[in-house]
Design goal:
mainly alpha, DNA-binding, homodimer, 69% helix
Chain lengths: 179, 179
Amino acid sequence: MDKNKSAFSFALLGLIGKAELSGYDLRKIFASTPMRSFSDSPGAIYPALQRLERMGFVRGRRDGAGGRKRVVFAVTARGRSEFGKWLAQPITRDDVIRRMDALMLKFAFLDQFGTKGAARRFLKALSRELASYIPELRTYLAKHGAHLPKSGRLALESGIRSYEEQLRWTKSSRAEYRG
Amino acid sequence: MDKNKSAFSFALLGLIGKAELSGYDLRKIFASTPMRSFSDSPGAIYPALQRLERMGFVRGRRDGAGGRKRVVFAVTARGRSEFGKWLAQPITRDDVIRRMDALMLKFAFLDQFGTKGAARRFLKALSRELASYIPELRTYLAKHGAHLPKSGRLALESGIRSYEEQLRWTKSSRAEYRG
DNA sequence: GCTAACATGTAATCCGTTACATGATTAT
DNA sequence: ATAATCATGTAACGGATTACATGTTAGC
């Protein structure tokens, strides 16, 4: 349905896809692992789970253990298919510029849920986008760097270096998939 | 007023602070410079400018040139003061994890609009936060890396390497401020 | 008996996205 | 003439934040 679901929804979907989880489980993950970049607030998680259930991507069941009102969610067939579609979406320059976090999330799930060779193709495509974008930024820096305030120039350099490191990462990662 | 204004609002405020600009000028900046990560859509920019005007941070005037209906904005005293407060906010770990982009935006403006030595202090504080956060991520990787799917582990490594590169950047930048 | 941790939810608000709408000016 | 570019806006919608609300279970 909604083509532009947030990275957050897909984070939920992917985690629930690995193992059935409650909202509270997800909160703990987002509060205490490197996935901290996602919100662990109840106001974000519970409504998101309700939306996913309404759309038929997950199904929740009361977990009666001890009479506690715990709701454990599992991904449905439709949910898996939707997740698969998301994983398969081609990488755009806009993804690189504005949604790198979502790209990395996607990659993190790719080995478990992607099709054969998807991770390799992902790395190749990302590498291509980075290799085409970085020179543009370098050109801009060369042209305008001189009359930017120092911190402005350094901020731009930070962005470029970050992309360059990401590119080096794609190279070493591709090597791991070849090896 | 609103303590949690978006990075986007501050990008507008900072740019208008350097030189009076219209909404369309801002759209062009966000469409064609390394500030592409901000939205250049009219539905984002014009309402944001209206909000800033309503709050008294900018003032718009009709630019009559050629009878064209162009609205040029200038930052008010209150706007500058608000911007200054934003610049002076201390760096938190949460900023590093979830709002690095906003931090870099802030730094970009710091030489022009910050107080004396603000850029140096910023770099020192950022360096401290990174140096304390990176080992946490490394520890997590050491503990859980082995039983993560390969792409999951690599995604985590990407995040760590990105923070490490950012830390190296703070070092070379601090050197530029000493030099 | 009390506190901390477990566990799920709602309501108000704000902001960004997408899509639509409108009109003036410049270049061909 | 007409297309491209300049220029500003609105409306519907959705998702995230913050703050509030509520109740259970386990350990001391």
